[in-house]
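[Meeting: bench + compute handoff]

Bench side (C.D.) handed over the final construct sequence. Compute side (W.E.) agreed to return the predicted structure before the next meeting so the bench team could plan truncations. Sequence as handed over:
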Amino acid sequence: MEQRVAIVTGGLRGLGRAMALGLAQAGNRVVAVGHIDSDVAEMEAAAGALGFGTRFRPLVADLREPGECDRVVAEAHARFGSVDILVNNAGLTFTYIDAARFRRPTRSGSGR
């Protein structure tokens, strides 16, 4: 694969983490986005240990906010010059955005 710049949402944990690290290992520059501050140091350490810390940028953002999405893209451009790949793996669901509307009631009658 030609070296490109990727943004991986949900990229600090689980499957997103694996995809972000895999893209970096293949020679791509990666901005891995998550929502938990404490995941950043762990990802920096993992990327550094694998030898691609300079082409890897873990970032915390609240992707429910349009301005935060803009900030992520701006960070990728500032750090790496472009964005070529978007892996949209954020675990945000409709039940999180509007629980009352999208969650089915449980047997006790409360939505969860």
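W.E. noted at the follow-up: The chain has five helices and four strands. C.D. will use this when planning the next construct.
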